[in-house]
Structures are given as structure tokens and as C-alpha cells.
User: What shape does this take?
Amino acid sequence: MNTPSFNLNVSSSLNYRDSPSTALAKNMIVVALGITINYINGTLIHTFRKHEIFYMNPRYVLFIHLVVNDMIQLTTSISLFVFSYVFYKINASFCCFIVIFAVFTTVNTPLNLALMAVECYVAVCFPLRHAELCTIKRTYFLIGCIWVLSAASILPDIFIILATEPLWLFYSTIFCSRDNLFRHPIHLQKRDVSHIIFLSGVWFTLFFTYFRIFFVAHAANSAEKNAKKARNTILLHGFQLLLCMLTYVAPLAQKFLIFMAPAYYLQMLFLWYIFVQILPRLVSPIVYGLRDKTFEKHLRKYLLCTIRAANKLHP
Assistant: This one.
């Protein structure tokens, strides 16, 4: 049974094999983590929907969009992980459908983080104009722009594959990975350029907003508490973005792991997948679900209700 490796939320073929018991254990761990994280994120969405105070606030709208995006990203990643063990090869058209969602959500994440950092910046540096600048209508418009930019990143790949690959490819079965599907050299060049442009813009936004908030905190003591919280939030966004960026160095990391510890390659590759693809999905609930007092108060109520209901069913 082949073990998967991962590049941008998808698997790629290896010449290494896991024993059936090890493969089963890995799949159970991944699925259990995925169900747990999606349950937490689902509770966040339920909490958001039940209280008007959240969906009338641009900050929470951007947050819940990130949570939904994380759920889609996590689901596609785990699906491909399980498919690589159970089926090994799947229909190329179905693979293309999953990969498109994986690319969409991967590009959406840094752009959403950049918008959330800008919202923090406006709230701290221009508090009197925050309600004017950060409206719900503009927030949904910017979310739409995120998806348009993501589409601009993946649509050229689709046009290139339609123009360069034979039609029978879409009826064949392949090991589902972005590299197996989009294998023309132009794909790689375009991908590298788009990654550099997107990530450079996002990192510039995070650094700019962080230092602007930092200077405001020192200039006005009255704003220091809110500014400190905003700075910590942006730092968490930066940490989350750093974890997301690790997917872009996956091929280099795999070669490094083979060179450093070939005997433990499968175990280290699995830990890499957990650390890069699954654990970052926990950052969003921590940033707002637990650190935000308003959200935490309502979230705790729903989590406690669920625990009490489970205790009644299993006394």
C-alpha cells in the first residue's frame, strides 16, 4: 500500500510502502483529526449564524469566511490522503475537480489573512472612520475579490491542460496530484510567479499593518491595550501564513527528509503532513474562537450543550 506525499494539499506517488496496520493507523489519525477540527469549525459557524452581532461585524465575517475556507481545504486534503491509500488512482476529471478546490482554498487563505490584518489596522489607527471604511457591503465585495483572484490563479492551468493534453486523459485514472495533472512546464513557471506575487503582497501587508499599529500604541497610551491585542492577532496571522507557506517547499522538504533520515522517511513525511496541512486549521479557532471574549462566550455555551447532550446519551 503506497504512502502519500503532499504538495499543495494533494498527494504524489512514492516508491515507499507502509504496512497495512501502519496505513490503517495513519488514516484513522488523519480522519479523527479532520473530524475534530471540522466539528470545532462547524460549531464556530453555527455560533456565527445564531447571533446578529457577528454577521453585522466585518471582522467576524472575514473570520467565518476563513473558517469555511479551512473546512473545504481540510476536507479536500484528507480526502486525497484517504484516496491515495484506498483507491491509489482515481478518475482524472474527478481529480481535477478536487485539485481546483484545493488550489482555490490555498490561495484564499493568505489573501483573507491580509484583509483581516488591514481591518485590525483600520480599527486601531483610524477608530473614528472604522465604521465608515469597514462596512459589511465592502467586506462581502472584498471576499468576492478574493475568489476572483484565486480563479485567476487556477483558470490558466485549466486552459493550458485543455490545449496541451489529449482528451483521453480526462477519462483515464491517475494518482491524484497537482503535478501529475498539471505537468506542462508552463504550469510550474506560472505557479512560481503567482506564488511570489501573492505571498510578497500578503507579507508586505502584514508587516506594514503590524508596525503601524506598533507605532500607534507607543504614541497613544489610551490605545495601547487594543493595539497590543491587534498586534498579537497579526502575529498569529503571520504564524498561520508561515505554516501555509510550508506547502510551497514540500518537494524540497521531501528531498531533505530522504537525505537526512531515509530509514524514517515515511514517519517524518506523515508528521510533515500533520504539521503543514492539518494543524494550521486549528489556528483560526484559537485566534478568534478562544481569544475573542464575545465569540468565546457564545461558543462555550454551544460546546457545553453538546457535551451535556453526549453525557445524557452515554451516562
